[in-house]
Amino acid sequence: MANVLNVGEYGELAIVDLGEDVSANTNSIAFKDPSGEETIKSAVVGVANYTSSIGTLLASEYITYTIETGLIDSAGRWYLRAISEGGGKKSKTNWLPFDVKA
Predict the structure, then answer these.
(1) Are the beta carbons of 18 and 25 closer than 8 angstroms?
(2) How high is the pLDDT of residue 52?
(3) Between 1 and 64, residue with greater pLDDT
(4) Best CA proximity match to 43, nearest among 59, 56, 57, 25
(5) Looking at the 3D structure of the chain, how many domains does it have?
(6) Which of 27, 74, 77, 94 could form a disulfide with 63 if both were Cys (CB 3.0 to 4.6 A apart)?
(7) Which residues pair with 1 in a beta bridge?
(8) For the chain, how big is the Rg over CA atoms in Å?
(9) Count of C-beta atoms within a 10 Å radius of residue 59
(10) What is the reported pTM?
(11) What is the pLDDT of residues 13-55, one digit of tens each?
(12) How far is CA 43 from the centre of its chain?
């Protein structure tokens, strides 16, 4: 995902690497807007390796969500993180920041 989005932007892909196989888990990405309100969206597991600016993410170890219309509705500092639950374990990544411009 771009480090900067615009209010109302959609279609951008949010990708979060979990560093372990999460293909059998229930996965989601939580978004936190500048006011602190959280919205959780279902995510899908990557099916092929993905090369990014930080390196290659291995298939089944990262999740994606395509940002839908209406989600990015205010300017400011936003955050996102992955949530993965399965095998008797629930894990969350640290919050990752991104900016939204008016």
Answers:
(1) no
(2) 86
(3) 64
(4) 25
(5) 1
(6) 27
(7) none
(8) 13
(9) 14
(10) 0.93
(11) 999 999 999 999 999 999 999 999 999 999 999 999 999 888 9
(12) 8
Query: What amino acid occupies position 47?
Result: V
Q: Which of 57, 64, 66 is nearest to 20 (CA)?
A: 57
DSSP per-residue string spanning 39-98: EEEE-EE-SS-EEETTEEEPTTSEEEEEPPTTS--S-EEEEEEEEEEETTEEEEPPPEEE
Domain holding 15: CATH number? 2.60.40.1220
The parent domain of residue 97 ranges over 4-101
Amino acid letter, residue 2: A
The label of the residue with tokens 């291995």 reads 58
C-alpha span between 14 and 68 (Å, rounded) = 11
The first and second tokens of residue 80, run together, are 């996102």
